[in-house]
Amino acid sequence: MTLLAETPSFSIVVPTRNRPQLLHNCLQGIADQKFCEQLEQVIVVDNGDLMNGTETVVERFSAHLPVSYLYASPPGVSRARNLGLQHSQSDITVFIDDDEIPGANWFSEMSAPFNSDKIRPDIVAGNYSPQWEAQRPKWLTDEYLGVYSVSLPYGDEPRFLSAKDWVLEGNIGVKTDLIKSAGGFDENLGRHRDSLVSGEGIIYQRLVEAGAKIFYNPKCLVKHLIHANRLDRKWLQKRMFASGITHAAHEKNRHLRDKQIPSVRVNLGALARVDINSLEGDDLLHFVQVFEIMGYVLRKKNIL
Q1: How many angstroms separate the CA atoms of 46 and 106, rounded?
Q2: 197 contacts 189 by C-beta, under 8 angstroms
Q3: For 271, how many CA atoms within 13 A lie in the half-sphere containing its CB?
Q4: Which of 91, 141, 207, 209 lies 20 to 30 Å from 63 when distance is taken between CA atoms?
Q5: CB-based contacts of 200: which residues, under 8 Å, 6+ apart?
Q6: Are 83 and 11 within 8 A, CB to CB?
Q7: Torsions phi, psi of 125, nearest 5?
Q8: Model pTM score
């Protein structure tokens, strides 16, 4: 793995799509950080409609941040991240999403492991806390927070992770040369327009499998907005179906040996008659897990 300078340089990449107010909040949080001389670039990659207000937001921060604007088309978050990565000129590239606000010490906690002679990571992954746009419904218990990209199950102590551990893509730093040499993000994966299929973060698991060291720092915290339209059981159902598709796509893209898919019989008529809004607890969990399995099987069978 490549060795870093004593004080490595950093670029921050922010992909965004048609959310200028959220981008403003994110950039304000970045501008409030203490950077010293290590921050070289903030790269905003607009992956939305033309004239959506994003470029104007970037211009507002040009006096406070070394920020630049790029436009990525056609839509796709992996494509946006790759364009930002392509223009990163720093030792470390940090990715944060437009609906996240970095905590007060976010950058110092992100950069500290890379600055440490004892840790020497190739990747640093931070943690997430939910910021609810509307009141959290009672049925949305903590077991669903991972689905909403606001929880990693690794405790409060910093530590190295293994290739079996998964991380999220919106609060992570990586050696730029390392991820570029691996080809960047798979543009067949990741959110695309209204699609909920994700999984572009598999690049980090691949890097760890190849020998990279990934360090988890829970103090490197961002607030992740949970949009009001996602506080709905129907959205959760769609997200779990997309999660099944993502798992199957991971296996295909990693050239894993096909698992034997058991014969599963589902009465679709009876399934369609279930009122998901009446379900809570284990009943809701088991119901949405059926859709995750369906998404997985349909993708594995090349039906989707």
Answers
A1: 23
A2: yes
A3: 12
A4: 91
A5: 77, 78, 81, 169, 185, 186, 189, 190
A6: no
A7: -110, 130
A8: 0.83
What ranges do the domains of the chain cover? 10-230, 233-300
State the pLDDT at residue 256: 45
Residue with token string 């304000």: 28
* Owner of token pair 């349909």: 298
Residue 121 tokens read as 């990571």
Which residues neighbour 124 within 8 Å (Cβ) at sequence distance 6 or greater? 110, 113, 114, 172, 173, 174, 214, 215, 216, 217, 220
pLDDT by residue, tens only, the chain of 304 residues: 555 657 899 999 999 999 999 999 999 999 999 877 899 999 999 999 988 999 999 999 999 899 999 999 888 889 999 999 999 999 999 999 999 999 999 999 999 999 999 999 999 999 999 999 999 999 999 988 888 888 788 999 999 998 888 888 899 999 999 999 999 998 876 555 555 455 567 888 889 989 999 999 999 999 999 999 999 999 988 888 877 766 665 565 554 444 555 555 666 666 777 788 888 888 888 778 777 777 767 767 666 6
The residue written with tokens 């997430």 in the block is 128
Q: Which amino acid is at 59?
A: E
Total length of the chain:
304
- CB–CB of 52/20 below 8 Å? yes
**Terminal C-alpha separation, the chain:** 38
Cα radius of gyration rounded to whole Å, the chain: 20
* Prior bond of 74 cis (ω within 30°): yes
